[in-house]
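Quick one: structure tokens for this chain, please?
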Amino acid sequence: MSFKNELSAKAIVKNAGWYATEFREMQVVSYLPSAIPRPSTWVEPLMSFYKLNCDACYHKEDRCVCCGVVMRDFSSQIIVVARQVFDGVSCPLHAELRAILFGLELIYQ
């Protein structure tokens, strides 16, 4: 199934702010002391949209990263699941960015 027609640039830009806000809120929560409860539920995207979750595991000694992505629709149905290993990664931030790029490349194939 191709998502090129379903995921227009307008739709992505229109909701980028909403997703950026959610990302910032989760980043703040991740720095809270472990004694404070953290949200652990997945938040579905807006109606008729998809949500792409990306994560990376960075191995410093080997300078490689394992990326995983999951795309779900507004009803929580899984649309795409994939993983990939990449070499030549310099830091954890680079690893996370590589995971995001992998996810975006995957859905636009």
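DSSP finds two helices and three strands in the chain.
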